[in-house]
Specification:
Blueprint (H helix, E strand, L loop, with lengths): L1 H21 L4 E7 L4 E8 L3 E3 L8 H5 L9 H20 L8 H30 L8 E6 L4 E7 L1 H31 L2 H12 L5 H20 L1
Antiparallel strand pairs: 1-2, 1-5, 2-3, 4-5
Helix pairs in contact: 1-3, 1-5, 3-4, 4-5
Length: 228
């Protein structure tokens, strides 16, 4: 129970971090001239794609260096948020040791698994799918361009790091939940338990009052026959 409680708390923290990370910067692309002045700044987040808060008024060089928009659909991020919300509901209100039948709990077991898979996608597939093909170096690189006389800086940011932490915290409870559910279902479907449930189903409850009334009627009938 202590292990389950610990895993559950870590899972909730992991869900919160996974959602918060979507609103933070995951990757930052910068450039500095030979005087050390920042001439390029672009941040990426799954919800807002690329934006440049430093050069909001517009800079020609900054605009020319803007990375290609992400190929990750916004619908995927929205689906991830929905999955996280369902996972929060499942971990708060669907206790595997109290709620039955187990068939309904299996839905939340799969939801927890999908949540972990989504976080794994952003952590492992996102760099391969989007960053590497667009020459956005991972996890961080400094690159000097002598022709432009600028230094480019590519680096992952706080949102991506928080997502990694969230993934680590989500994993234990997800495995525990799925494994425990499978164990309960196997126990439920052992031959002995199946036979016991069948016997309980076909066995009619004894109506003692009915039997007493029938015996009384028989006795009354015998008395009447005897008097005759």
């Amino acid at each position: 129970m202590e292990i389950k409680s610990t895993f559950r708390k870590l899972f909730i923290i992991g869900l919160v971090l996974a959602v918060i990370s979507l609103f933070l910067d995951w990757y930052v692309f910068q450039a500095f001239n030979i005087e050390g002045e920042q001439v390029v700044y672009w941040s990426y987040s799954p919800l807002f794609d690329w934006y440049s808060p430093v050069f909001a008024s517009g800079s020609v060089f900054n605009e020319l260096c803007k990375p290609k928009n992400s190929s990750i659909p916004l619908a995927m991020t929205i689906l991830f948020i929905i999955t996280v919300i369902l996972s929060i509901f499942g971990v708060l209100f669907k206790d595997i040791e109290k709620d039955h039948p187990f068939q309904k709990l299996r839905f939340y077991a799969y939801i927890h698994i999908f949540t972990v898979l989504f976080t794994a996608f952003y952590i492992f597939i996102y760099p391969i799918w989007y960053l590497f093909p667009n020459n956005l170096y991972f996890p961080f690189v400094e690159q000097n361009d002598p022709f432009l006389e600028v230094q480019f800086l590519y680096t992952v940011h706080i949102g991506y790091l928080i997502q990694i932490i969230g993934f680590i915290l989500l994993f234990p409870y997800t495995i525990f939940y799925y494994h425990t559910l499978n164990s309960f279902e196997k126990e439920l479907h052992t031959p002995e338990n199946v036979i016991n449930r069948y016997l309980e189903k076909i066995q009619e409850p004894l109506d003692f009052d009915k039997y007493i009334r029938e015996e009384e009627l028989k006795l009354d009938k015998k008395k009447k026959d005897y008097k005759r």
